Structures are given as C-alpha cells and as structure tokens.
Amino acid sequence: MAVFKAIVIEKADGGTKAALADFDEANLMDGDVTVRVEYSTLNYKDGLAITGKGPVVRRFPMIAGIDFAGTVESSSHAGWKRGDKVILNGWGCGETHLGAYAEKARVKGDWLVPLPKTMSAREAMAIGTAGYTAMLAVMALERHGLTTDKGPIAVTGAAGGVGSVAIAILAKRGFVVHAVTGRTQEGDYLKRLGAAEIVDRKELAGSAKPLAKERWAGAIDAVGSNTLANLLSMTRYGGAVAACGLAGGMDLPTSVAPFILRGLCLYGIDSVMCPIERRREAWKRLETDLDRQKLAMMTREIGLSDVFGVAPEILSGQVRGRVVVKVG
Questions:
Q1: Domains of the chain
Q2: CB under 8 Å to 53, separation ≥6 — which residues?
C-alpha cells in the first residue's frame, strides 16, 4: 500500500484546512514501527485540530488523530514484531508527528503499548485517549488515598468522553459518583453508567468562594476555569481533584485557601507524555475496571469521512460518550 487514505491538515488563508486525501507512504515520518491502523477515535483535541479552532497542529502538512489501535506491519524495534496488536495515545501524534487518521502510521516503538488480550482494537479506541485519561485520573485519586468510604466523587463534563468513562470506572470500583453536567437531560444515561446523583453545571458556573460548603471527597474535572475553582472550594478536608481538561477555559480563578486551610491536592493529568510504565498500568486496569457493556452503551462508530461533521459537535458539547473512528 504505497498510497493510502488519510485526513490531512494543510495551511490555508487565514488558518488551516482539513480534507480526506491520498497520502504516499514514502512521506511518513521517521520511526522504527509501521502500523496498519484499524481504529482511531474522536477526542476534544482532534476536534480543535480538524476545525482549526485551536493551535493543536504545529507541523504542516499534518495527518490528524492523536490515538490509534492496529497491527504491526513491520518493525526494527526489539519490543515489537509483525502481527503484534498495539495501542498508541499521544506522544505528539496529530500535533508534531503524523497521526492516526490514516490507514498507516510510522512511529517510535517506545510509544506503543500492547493491546490487552481480552480487548478488541475497536474497544480500545472506544476507550481512546479520553478513557485512558479518565483511568489516569482515577489512579491519581487512588494514589492520594481516596477510598469508597471517604465520600462521593464529582465528575464534571459528565456526559462527554472523559466523564462517561470516569463514571463507569468509579462506579465499578464502588465509589458514589455525582455527575456534573450542563445537559441534565442526559440524567438517565449518566445513571445507567453508575452516577448516583446528577448536579447541574450551573451550580459550579459562577465565581468561586475561597471556601464553600464541603460536598465531595474528590473530583475529576475536564472543564477548568470557574468549574474547577468551585470544585476546589467544595472539596472536603484532605481531598483531591484530578484536572485533565479545559473545555470551559484555561484560567483558574481561585485562591490558596483550599490548599492551605483544607489540605487539598490538585493533580494535573497529562496523557500525552505520560511515562510508559503508567500507560501500561492504565491499560491493564482498563481491561478489568471498565464494564464493557457500559462501554458499548456509550459508544457510536463513524468512518473517516464522517469526522469532519462530528468534530464541531464535540467542541460544542453535543457529543455524548465516545466516538470510535473506523479507519482500516
């Protein structure tokens, strides 16, 4: 396959332009493993790249897509051989390295993790970077010492990709989950995932007090800005918040009060450059700690050509759960 289909982003007048195009394998970037991509997914960052509404892409031309699951076609890396099933999340793919919305990808073998034995490539990308990030956030809260008896855990952006997977994982682990969402009409969906209570996002939208009434033992936040500030002010003494998104903004209008008066910890969750050992742990946990029936319930499948229509929807908060992209 010298030429294959890919979503390519080029510079254009006043911005960028993304299109489904033929791409020559000879133009793939350096790497010691070539993968035949089977599935990818649509994450918030992919939406920014496809629409050009965020400065995600830093090299042109760029193949979009920050994650994939597929089969090794060739390898000079000692850890991988032809036929191995692999997953990639982040490492600059779709930003500085040619990405996943293509039938082939050439990457560094050190970036890859093995596809869990009981998981299909489609399931892995139904989880995708959003779900893998949710698992990293859960792991951070558990390392902090949060247990099921400490109190409820809030999850913001609850109906989105990170939020949906986080709720399902936390519920299976036995935590009481409060789903914070601006789409309260999705309450039944969120309760089927395992949420015990639905909280209207409006309750966390205004300016945050330095300290408010204690409500949650911890939280996973994909929103940022006032929402994160309010979460911090409402988290119980000794609690923790794992922050992994900025759908509501990059600012954090808070004070030191939650940290020095309640001993809170704010954990930053980075999925892009996360060390390989933690990645392997996260995917091992995802194999056992995520209900596959709930994963199927939150997932819909699209093709490469459908990405252009769905990308604006994920930025405007219209996408529920996960979107898996069939590539190969």
A1: 3-115+298-326 (3.90.180.10), 128-268 (3.40.50.720)
A2: 47, 315
